[in-house]
Write a structure and sequence with these properties.
With about 50 residues, the protein is mainly alpha-helical. The protein contains one helix and no strands. InterPro entries: AgrD.
Length: about 50
């Protein structure tokens, strides 16, 4: 149990950064067939570069 907590604490920031990067890329690109996402998550409009 302690090991699991250490792993989560160590890699939680990396996972959050990766999620932010993927969402940012998804907002700023057009829809592709394999990565189709009809609705963006709430707050994702703030990441738009335009």
């Amino acid at each position: 149990m302690i090991l699991l907590k250490k792993v989560i604490l160590r890699f939680g920031g990396v996972l959050a950064s990766l999620a932010l990067m993927v969402t940012s890329m998804n907002v700023n690109t057009t829809c592709m067939y394999l990565a189709h996402q009809p609705e963006l998550p709430k707050g994702a409009e703030k990441l738009r570069k335009n």
